[in-house]
Write a structure and sequence with these properties.
The chain has four helices and six strands. The chain is 23% helix and 35% strand. The protein has a six-stranded antiparallel β-sheet with strand order 1-2-4-5-6-3, with helices on one face. 29% of the residues are buried. The chain is of the alpha+beta class.
Length: 147
């Protein structure tokens, strides 16, 4: 996994609009199998080559929520990081992620509400130059005043 460390916490008092963090991860067959096991989503489009070949994707794809989980990792580990609480997330899946693809999950601070400790984050995932997922997250950020 490649990311722009450090991991930890950026408290709301230190956040700035435009701050960006990311990680990159190659999605493996094992990742897809483990996600299927944990989530109990065993849709054959993710697990069965023969079945998936006859779908609009013409091959197996990773679970969309596996890809979305990479956004959660950036939020929970980097921006704002440890102590962050998810309040909401919108997702729009734009293109499939396939086994072997390297996904870059990016999070950028769009707005900060210091009074409510809420931060709005632009979120997206890319495979190469292709945006495969985009959305917006709203989180309760840690604060040096309260935590």
């Amino acid at each position: 996994m490649f990311d722009n460390l450090p991991r930890g916490t950026i408290v709301i008092e230190d956040l700035e609009v435009g701050m960006t963090r990311y990680l990159q991860k190659q999605v493996t067959d094992r990742d897809i199998e483990l996600f299927a096991e944990v989530s109990t989503d065993r849709n054959p489009v993710h697990l069965d080559d023969d079945y998936a070949q006859d779908t609009i994707f013409e091959g197996r794809i990773a679970h969309g929520m596996l890809t979305a989980g990479l956004i959660s990792a950036v939020i929970g580990e980097q921006l704002p990081g440890h102590g962050t609480v998810y309040l909401g997330q919108t997702l729009k899946f734009m293109a499939p992620v396939r086994p072997g693809d390297t996904v870059r999950a990016e999070v950028t601070v769009d707005a900060i509400d210091h009074g409510k400790r809420r931060v709005t984050l632009a979120t997206r995932c890319l495979v190469g130059d292709t945006v495969v997922l985009k959305g917006e997250a709203v989180v309760l950020a840690p604060s040096r005043k309260f935590d």
